[in-house]
Design goal:
Keywords: Activator, Chromatin regulator, Coiled coil, Cytoplasm, DNA damage, DNA repair, Nucleus, Transcription, Transcription regulation, Transferase. The protein has helices spanning 28-32, 141-144, 165-172, 189-192, 209-254; strands spanning 12-25, 41-49, 69-75, 84-87, 92-98, 103-110, 119-124, 150-161. It has 255 residues and is α+β, with helices and mostly antiparallel strands.
Length: 255
C-alpha cells in the first residue's frame, strides 16, 4: 500500500465553514421582469469558508474550498424546476427568487483523496428578519426593502479524523484564513436590535474567533443538557420498573 493511502492515526484536522443564506426584497421593477410575479425576494444559499474578505461585503468566502470539497448539491423546494442544484466548482452557491421560506438540504462531497463520505447539512431559508421572540418579523415590502439584506448563517467545523497522508498534505498546504478576534463591521439591524424594525440598517455579519467560541460553548451546554435529560429519564424508568416489579409481586401473592 502506498504511504499516501495510510491513515495518520490519532490525528484530527478541521476546516471552518459557514453555510446559510442572504436575502433581499425585490424592487417593483425586478418583480415585473420575473416570470413569477408573486416572488418577493431574491436569495443566495451557499457553503463558504468562515473567514471573510475584508474588502468584500460577502459573508465568508475568503478561501477557495475546492482544495477539499469536490461538489455541493443544494436540494430546494419541490416547486422549483431542477430541484437538486449541483455545483462542481466555487463559489458553492445557488441564487434564486421566491416568496416563501423552506428547508434546504445541503450535501457536501469531498475530493477522492480524502476517502471521506459525503455529509448532509440542513438550512432553513430565511427571508424575513427576526423579532425579539426569535420569530420572523414580516414588514410590508415597501418597508422591508429599506433595511437591506437579511442574513442567516451557521458556523461549523468539518473534522477529519485519522486522515490519509496525502489528504493531510493537501489540507496542511492550504491553511484557512484565521478569523479576526472581533468584528469591526456593523451588525445587521435584525441581529443588533430585533425588537424594532426602526433600527439602523446595519451591515454585513462577520464571523470571529469570539463568535466561534460562543457557538462551541452553546453546543457544549446543549450536549450537557441533553445528557442531563437522558439521565433524568433513565432514573424515571428505573423507578417505574421498580414500581412495576413491586405491583407484580403483590399480584402474585394474591393469586
Amino acid at each position: 500500500m502506498s504511504n499516501d493511502r495510510v491513515r495518520v492515526r490519532g490525528l484530527s484536522i478541521f476546516r471552518p465553514i459557514i453555510y446559510g443564506n442572504t436575502a433581499t426584497v425585490l424592487t417593483p421593477k425586478e418583480r415585473e421582469s420575473l416570470s413569477s410575479p408573486d416572488h418577493t425576494h431574491k436569495w443566495t444559499v451557499a457553503v463558504r469558508s468562515a473567514a471573510s474578505n475584508p474588502n468584500s461585503d460577502i459573508v465568508g468566502g475568503a478561501d477557495d474550498l475546492s482544495y477539499f470539497i469536490k461538489r455541493v448539491v443544494f436540494k430546494l423546494h419541490e416547486t422549483y424546476p431542477n430541484q437538486s442544484r449541483t455545483v462542481d466548482k466555487p463559489p458553492f452557491e445557488v441564487s434564486e427568487t421566491g416568496w416563501g421560506e423552506f428547508e434546504i438540504q445541503i450535501r457536501i462531497t469531498f475530493i477522492s483523496e480524502s476517502g471521506e463520505k459525503a455529509i448532509l447539512l440542513y438550512h432553513h431559508l430565511k427571508l424575513h428578519p427576526w423579532n425579539a421572540t426569535g420569530e420572523a418579523e414580516i414588514p410590508p415590502l415597501d418597508v422591508a426593502i429599506k433595511y437591506g439584506p437579511v442574513h442567516s448563517w451557521q458556523y461549523d467545523e468539518i473534522v477529519f479524523n485519522d486522515p490519509f497522508q496525502n489528504f493531510l498534505s493537501i489540507l496542511t498546504a492550504h491553511p484557512p484564513t484565521p478569523l479576526p478576534k472581533g468584528s469591526k463591521r456593523p451588525v445587521p439591524f435584525h441581529l443588533s436590535n430585533p425588537a424594532s424594525l426602526e433600527a439602523s440598517k446595519g451591515g454585513t455579519p462577520e464571523f470571529t474567533t469570539q463568535m466561534a467560541k460562543e457557538e462551541a460553548d452553546r453546543l457544549d451546554a446543549a450536549k450537557k443538557e441533553v445528557l442531563a435529560q437522558q439521565e433524568a429519564m433513565r432514573l424515571q424508568i428505573v423507578e417505574k420498573e421498580k414500581e412495576l416489579d413491586s405491583l407484580q409481586r403483590q399480584l402474585n401473592s394474591m393469586a
